[in-house]
Amino acid sequence: MTSEFSIASVERGKSLLITCMVKLLLLSVIVIVSYVMRFGLETLPPRIVRFVLTVLLLIWLYRGSLAAKWICVVLYGIAGIMLLVKMPLDNLWACLILGSMSFVFLEMTYRLLHSKDVNHFLRFQREGGIRPEDGYI
Fold first, then answer.
1. Which of 4, 35, 65, 99 is the most exposed place for a label (fewest CB within 10 A)?
2. What is the C-alpha to C-alpha distance for residues 111 and 101, in angstroms, rounded to an integer?
3. Model confidence at 129: pLDDT above 80
């Protein structure tokens, strides 16, 4: 029931989730551009496929899918931890870049696991959003 949480909580959750999604997509674009600049256009097709899959996963998540939520938690959680583990401590730039990427991945994981607002928004989406019978319109 949507009456178990406030519309303000749903709106905060929507805002937090969209912010995390934008960060992930911007990070993906930056990675694509850096790979193309460093290794040439032959690296572009697999990066574009990965970007499209990321967009589709995030759309699925935005619509409230529990499966998409747990896929994101597992994939971004593992990626964030692996970036920290594999970080070369002797290279400052690599530490800054990989640390930033890890932060974005782990922030998404944290929000999906622990943010009541984000989880209220996802549940609200699963239940069909705002309906006239809920009295919100």
1. 4
2. 16
3. no
Q: Is 112 exposed, middle or buried (0-12, 13-18, 19+ CB in 10 A)?
A: buried
Q: What is the pTM of this model?
A: 0.87
Tokens read off for 22: 């934008």
CA dist., res. 79 & res. 132, Å (int):
41
Farthest CA pair distance, the chain: 60
User: How far apart (Å, rounded) are the C-alpha atoms in residues 132 and 107?
Assistant: 34
Residue 133: the pLDDT is 55
Question: Measured between alpha carbons, how far is 87 from 81 in angstroms, rounded to an integer?
Answer: 10
75 close to 90: Cβ distance less than 8 angstroms: no
The upper half-sphere exposure of residue 34, i.e. CA atoms within 13 Å in the direction of its Cβ, equals 7
Structure tokens that stand for 56 in this block: 């589709």
Which 3-state string (H, E, C) describes the chain? CHHHCCHHHHHHHHHHHHHHHHHHHHHHHHHHHHHHHHHCHHHHHHHHHHHHHHHHHHHHHHCCCHHHHHHHHHHHHHHHHHHHHCCCCCCHHHHHHHHHHHHHHHHHHHHHHHCHHHHHHHHHHHCCCCCHHHCCC
